[in-house]
């Protein structure tokens, strides 16, 4: 038989966010079974290609049909927007929109490949079961050739990814992602045989070594050989599940419960060792979907309903921004008006990109335009806008009036309002109409994005809501002396408005006097250095002197001090390396100040390390077991940056800093995906109200590295292998959107935080010793408080009933012999257990218990039984054959790595050929033991890659 491994998978990746919204994702609504607002944006790196637009329409039309059927006639895509980059020529039929919608789109078409997954589609930013991901990444290769390449039918592929993105479903195919633990999870031991991970069990296929095509055997450890994969038959009659083998031709449904009342065609395979079971407590796709708001209160439509979406084509134009400044009486308090003046001047002079149109409006009881929209093309344009900034205050607060004024100002152009931005700065609670709620409908229908910066803790609580509803961000400035937020938040507002964005290198507060100078080092890495600016913001700026010494000892003296900000510009391209900043003053009293450093990539379009941040929730209810998760992605281009030092500090506080990790335990969904995460506990907060997290990501000891392919190949899906590459020292800071704390009390919190659930339990070996089974279990240690610290005890349970161990694990027998003592969170743990063999399948779970007796949730379930199926132990190789093209062993490694990270779902189309004997002989000549791979410099075969024959 000729093997054709078609395909693969579809992947998922990392992150997640709060229940229904991702801070900067455009809103999607559901009404009458139809989704509105789905936005697909094409990267400006893709050259103009009108065929791509039609291709996208075809895809989404097909996806809408698949979705309608798979959702039991409850959902389809009603209207869909396709956004073209501003580099494409504008047709009169396109709608123009302001700014970069790409970074807020749900689906991004981008040919920049994630070097780990290549052309494979994936969802970035999946974190927890049932939670929305950040975006879907598709390449044009996939759009034009994906179906032929074996990814599956286009509509199925899209809906598989939609399951990840929208409903937080996980893959039901095998996943190898816990890379540190070598046991494969492509199979699970049950009833005397290794069964393939799949959903449903109706999916037919074969278990083969992916390099030789031979049937799999078990290793000396009694587990399937490492390169063993399950290849589903493309023509399997199974119809579920789209989250599993979605490239099987007849796939069109999601799995439902594992109860016998669910017919076998749809019955969830709750024992399979896949991420859906691990992350979702063995629940099926439908059990998770039914809890999603999208499925609440729907009346299924008619099966014959026409689900073709309405498409709108938009094209991006330069950003339009209305700066909306509060001048009500309270702005005099705490020097708010002068601080706002300083920060806004800095924004106009140094942050807004050329080509952006900016207008300025103010409001108290009424709104006024103080500068009409002006397209910035010169320094004098910037100056002119600065001169319009307000300097006097008075009156009451009507935020709605201000918003309406900006809408009118932004609406002055023929381009319409959509995508334009209002940047609202206010300290006030609304005291008169029109209120925010009054203008909310206009904001929503016009598509204007509202970013808000709240000054002080009396600002209106609705600010965050209007930002989120519009796809904008809200920031909070605490007015603490050591806060850097005022400048950072202005920078964050425009970070996404241009593809040539400003990168925040450093933001640091300090204080100094005549006897105590401020000395600080910063790193300008080799990928940035254009338009580099160092700024000191200080109310006493006339009294300070700054010196900046470059890596080659050049002293930079191009200093300009205006509006309370002292600016040092590094001419041309700043040399990379360490810069020493020294600030001195003649003042005898302590003066507070803030240092900010920003730059741009050395050459426009070059990739550089960038941070993005989101939170699991924007409110935190103070309590002894409350947590909020902070997620930070560190990517260089699409490549995950590993081994970076990432921290989150509550801004304006002393010493509340948490360390983020990318180790695949606790809050961190997946190891080594470049998404770092950490729980923020209530004891990090010391008051109610808004808070801002400042994120720092740095590599100061040259450890951080990216994963990348050794050679770039044009043809999916060859990987020449993955390698790591040092990224060099760098530093970055960004702000999170605000987080609001409620129910704070000053009383000491008791330790109610239990250890995290273990999700990495696996079999390392299973051996029959007489009438006993000797097994070795592997897992990663979790902590005392979730994923932090060291737990006190492990509690292992065993049962021969799957439903009992799933539903009442604490009623099952406890394993007590030689149970290891927990190690520090993240360490690899191992446990050798000997159990009686009575020929029944046994199920094992574990939980950790902390020093005060708080018990974590039980882990994923591992099954074990005596292997009696002879097909796993025989050496007969008689079914498969390969074409004999030689490639080096690095292919094997690469594929494995890819699989580890992505999971794998292969498909075979079989057709007889006749050179299998030759292969077998060659295999023997390699003198390998069955089940053992040769060393990596031995040659392996690869599958022929032509026509429709592809390997993963
Ligand atoms: C924007 O201007 C257009 C045409 O001048 C007008 O029809 C529309 O109502 C305005 N939109 C808003 C939200 O004011
Ligand atoms: C706001 O902060 C001030 C001082 O920081 C405090 O006295 C006041 O109670 C706070 N108000 C609210 C509504 O939290
Ligand atoms: C300093 O900045 C002001 C205002 O931006 C500008 O007019 C002046 O030319 C600048 N001076 C120098 C030396 O750059
Ligand atoms: C927070 O406090 C309010 C008022 O004291 C109370 O009604 C509410 O139940 C509390 N919320 C939680 C989650 O404890």
From TrEMBL:
Regions that span the bilayer: 886-908
Chain intervals for the UniProt region annotation (Disordered): 916-939
Classification via Gene3D superfamilies: von Willebrand factor, type A domain
Comp. bias intervals (Basic and acidic residues): 916-925
Signal peptide residue numbers: 1-23
Any Pfam family the entry gives: CLCA
Transmembrane as UniProt keyword: yes
Domain VWFA: 320-494
Compositionally skewed regions (Basic residues) per UniProt: 930-939
Keywords on record: Membrane, Signal, Transmembrane, Transmembrane helix
Domain of life where this protein originates: Eukaryota
Transmembrane among keywords: yes
The protein, known as: VWFA domain-containing protein
Organism per entry: Mytilus coruscus (Sea mussel)
């Amino acid at each position: 038989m000729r093997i054709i491994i078609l395909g693969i998978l579809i992947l998922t990746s990392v992150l997640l966010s709060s229940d229904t919204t991702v801070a900067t994702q455009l809103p999607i609504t559901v009404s009458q079974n139809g989704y509105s607002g789905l936005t697909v944006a094409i990267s400006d790196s893709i050259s103009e290609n009108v065929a791509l637009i039609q291709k996208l329409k075809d895809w989404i039309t097909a996806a809408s049909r698949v979705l309608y059927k798979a959702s039991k006639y409850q959902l389809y895509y009603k209207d869909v927007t396709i956004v073209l980059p501003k580099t494409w020529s504008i047709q009169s039929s396109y709608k123009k929109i302001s700014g970069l919608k790409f970074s807020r789109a749900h689906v991004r078409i981008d040919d920049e490949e994630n070097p780990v997954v290549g052309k494979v589609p994936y969802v970035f930013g999946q974190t927890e079961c049932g939670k929305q991901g950040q975006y879907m990444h598709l390449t044009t290769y996939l759009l034009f050739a994906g179906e032929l390449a074996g990814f599956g039918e286009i509509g199925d592929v899209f809906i598989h990814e939609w399951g990840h993105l929208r409903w937080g479903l996980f893959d039901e195919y095998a996943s190898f992602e816990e890379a540190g633990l070598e046991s494969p999870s492509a199979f699970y031991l049950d009833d005397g045989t290794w069964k393939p991970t799949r959903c449903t069990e109706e999916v037919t296929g074969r278990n083969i070594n992916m390099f030789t095509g031979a049937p799999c055997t078990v290793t000396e450890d009694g587990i399937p050989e490492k390169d063993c994969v399950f290849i589903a038959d493309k023509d399997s009659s199974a119809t579920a599940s789209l989250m599993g083998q979605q490239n099987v031709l007849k796939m069109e449904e999601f799995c439902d419960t594992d109860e016998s009342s669910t017919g076998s065609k749809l019955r969830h395979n709750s024992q399979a060792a896949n991420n859906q079971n691990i992350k979702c407590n063995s629940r099926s796709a439908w059990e998770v979907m039914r809890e999603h708001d999208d499925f609440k209160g729907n009346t299924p439509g008619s099966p014959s309903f026409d689900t073709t979406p309405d498409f709108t084509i938009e094209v991006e134009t330069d950003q339009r921004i209305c700066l909306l400044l509060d001048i009500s009486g309270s702005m005099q308090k705490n020097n708010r008006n002068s601080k706002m003046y300083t920060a806004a001047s800095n924004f106009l002079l140094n942050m807004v990109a050329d080509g952006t149109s900016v207008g300025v409006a103010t409001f108290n009881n009424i709104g006024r335009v103080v500068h009409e929209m002006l397209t910035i093309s010169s320094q004098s344009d910037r100056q002119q806008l600065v001169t319009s900034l307000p300097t006097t205050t008075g009156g009451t607060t009507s935020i709605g009036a201000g918003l309406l004024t900006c809408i009118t100002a932004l609406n002055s152009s023929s381009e319409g309002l959509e995508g334009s931005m209002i940047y609202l700065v206010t300290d006030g609670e609304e005291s008169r109409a029109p209120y925010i709620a009054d203008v909310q409908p206009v904001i929503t229908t016009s598509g204007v994005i509202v970013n808000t910066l709240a000054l002080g803790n009396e600002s209106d609580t609705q600010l965050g809501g209007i930002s989120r509803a519009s796809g904008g961000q809200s920031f909070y400035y605490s007015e603490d002396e050591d806060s850097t937020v005022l400048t950072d938040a202005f920078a964050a507002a425009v970070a996404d408005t241009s593809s040539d964005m400003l990168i925040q290198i450093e933001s640091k507060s300090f204080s100094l006097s005549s006897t105590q100078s401020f000395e600080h080092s910063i790193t300008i890495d080799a990928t940035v250095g254009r338009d580099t600016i160092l700024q000191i913001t200080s109310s006493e700026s006339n009294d300070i002197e700054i010196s900046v010494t470059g890596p080659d000892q050049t002293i930079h003296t191009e200093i300009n001090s205006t509006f309370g900000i002292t600016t040092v510009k590094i001419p041309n391209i700043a040399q990379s390396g360490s810069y020493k900043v020294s600030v001195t003053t003649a003042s005898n009293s302590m003066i507070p100040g803030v240092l900010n450093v920003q730059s741009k990539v050395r050459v426009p379009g070059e990739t550089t390390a960038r941070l993005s941040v989101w939170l699991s929730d924007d409110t935190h209810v103070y309590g002894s077991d409350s947590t909020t998760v902070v997620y930070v992605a560190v990517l260089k281009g699409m490549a995950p940056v590993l081994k970076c030092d990432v921290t989150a500090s509550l801004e304006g506080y002393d010493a509340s800093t948490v360390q983020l990790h990318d180790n695949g335990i606790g809050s961190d969904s997946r190891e080594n995906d470049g998404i770092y995460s950490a729980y923020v506990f209530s004891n990090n907060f010391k008051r109610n109200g808004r808070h801002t997290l400042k994120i720092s990501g740095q590599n100061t000891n040259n450890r951080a590295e990216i994963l990348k392919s050794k050679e770039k190949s044009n043809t999916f899906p060859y990987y020449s292998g993955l390698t790591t590459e040092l990224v060099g020292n760098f530093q970055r800071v960004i702000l999170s959107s605000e987080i609001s704390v409620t129910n704070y009390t000053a009383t000491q919190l008791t330790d109610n935080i239990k250890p995290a659930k273990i999700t990495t339990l696996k079999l390392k070996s299973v051996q029959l010793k007489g009438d006993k089974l000797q097994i070795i279990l592997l897992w990663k240690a979790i902590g005392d408080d979730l994923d932090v610290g060291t737990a006190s005890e492990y509690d292992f349970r065993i049962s021969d009933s799957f439903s009992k161990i799933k539903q009442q694990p604490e009623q099952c027998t406890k394993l007590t012999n030689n149970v290891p003592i927990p190690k520090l969170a993240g360490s690899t743990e191992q446990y050798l257990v000997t159990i009686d063999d009575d020929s029944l399948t046994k199920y094992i779970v574990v939980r950790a218990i902390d020093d005060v007796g708080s018990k974590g949730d039980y882990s994923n379930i591992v099954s074990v039984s005596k292997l009696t199926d002879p097909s796993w132990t025989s050496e007969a190789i008689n079914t498969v054959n390969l074409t004999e093209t030689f490639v080096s062993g690095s292919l094997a490694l690469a594929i494995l790595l890819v699989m580890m990270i992505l999971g794998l779902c292969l498909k075979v189309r079989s057709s007889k050929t006749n050179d299998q004997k030759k292969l077998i002989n060659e295999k023997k000549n390699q003198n390998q033991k069955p089940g053992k791979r040769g060393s990596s410099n031995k040659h392996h075969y690869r599958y022929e890659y032509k026509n429709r024959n592809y390997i993963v």
